[in-house]
């Protein structure tokens, strides 16, 4: 009996020592951050910026690996099945939680298969209209749409995308009707918005900002329920539609089971990086608002986000095979 007790004590001590070792000595080799988009875009630039700063702080290389495709599901599936040892992370987007609501087959669970690390940033999205549409505020737009039912169309950058869901949520909450015209990306949609072939669009500020600044489109509001740090002078949709809130996001997640000390270490380092003036300036230029929330807050946000867009997709009957 004494021998068994001593053996158990030694085993427990070794497990505790192993956990402490993992927390204090991590990392001992390169870390990979998987990006679900092609190189060159805002998310890729963000990932490489964070990777460079993290490498300096952690003393190990941080490799950015691009795995685009299937509505970000290729990258998500890859990370969900990676070893939970703190050496593989996903720079996830809102689509991580949206996908199960719109695709008939998704091979991962956005909550059970991942560990939230930190919400890195919100992607500034705006509601804008063609200059030919005689409205200058969200309330004027709502009034116009109610006076012209079925006559106005909106551009989306693809069925099931965050901008598509934002428009459908706006229709539902404002009690208005608009016809969706789907496009393969923001550029062709903006071309038709400028020309007046479509009248309304939800889009990222990063792509629409130059058009708005030159007067080719008219931005009415941002989609978040509080003003954006990047464009603080633009009002929110919620001023005219109480309760409207849409925050497209980017955040770090790890495979489920990644040790908490490692998750906390990465969160702490990233949160510190996000407070650096040079980093915040770069984020603003990319149309992003830095956040840096803790793991528990980010996990709760993801669960709420999944429910929000799940309801929108169900109510609007948005489903893809």
UniProtKB/TrEMBL annotation:
InterPro entries assigned to the protein according to its UniProt record, in alphabetical order: BUG, Bug_dom1
Keyword Signal carried by entry: yes
Signal peptide residues on this chain, from the entry's feature table: 1-22
Keywords associated with the record: Signal
Family: Belongs to the UPF0065 (bug) family.
Protein name, entry field: Tripartite tricarboxylate transporter substrate binding protein
């Amino acid at each position: 009996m004494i021998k068994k007790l001593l053996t158990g004590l030694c085993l427990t001590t070794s497990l505790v020592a192993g956990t402490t070792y993992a927390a204090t000595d991590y990392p001992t080799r390169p870390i990979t951050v998987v990006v679900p988009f092609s190189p060159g875009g805002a998310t890729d630039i963000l990932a490489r910026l964070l990777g460079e700063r993290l490498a300096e702080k952690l003393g190990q290389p941080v490799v950015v690996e691009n795995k685009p495709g299937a509505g970000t599901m290729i990258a998500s599936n890859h990370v969900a099945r990676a070893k939970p040892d703190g050496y593989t992370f996903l720079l996830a987007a809102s689509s991580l939680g949206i996908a199960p609501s719109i695709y008939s087959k998704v091979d991962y669970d956005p909550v059970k298969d991942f560990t939230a690390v930190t919400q890195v940033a919100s992607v500034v999205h705006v509601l804008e209209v063609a200059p030919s549409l005689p409205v200058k505020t969200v309330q004027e737009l709502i009034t116009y749409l109610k006076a012209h039912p079925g006559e106005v169309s909106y551009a989306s950058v693809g069925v099931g995308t965050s901008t598509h869901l934002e428009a459908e949520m706006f229709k539902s909450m404002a009690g208005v009707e608009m016809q969706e015209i789907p496009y393969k990306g923001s550029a062709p949609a903006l071309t038709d918005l400028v020309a007046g072939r479509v009248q309304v669009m939800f889009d990222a500020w990063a792509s629409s900002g130059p058009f708005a600044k030159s007067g080719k489109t008219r931005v009415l509001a941002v989609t978040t329920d509080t003003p954006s740090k990047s464009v603080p002078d633009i009002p929110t949709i919620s001023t005219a539609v109480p309760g409207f809130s849409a925050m497209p996001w980017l955040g770090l997640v790890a495979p489920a089971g990644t040790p908490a000390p490692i998750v906390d270490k990465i969160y702490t380092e990233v949160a510190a990086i996000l407070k650096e003036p040079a980093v915040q300036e770069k984020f603003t230029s990319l149309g992003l608002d830095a956040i840096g929330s803790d793991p528990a807050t980010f996990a709760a946000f993801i669960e709420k986000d999944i429910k929000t867009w799940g309801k929108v997709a169900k109510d609007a009957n948005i489903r893809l095979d």
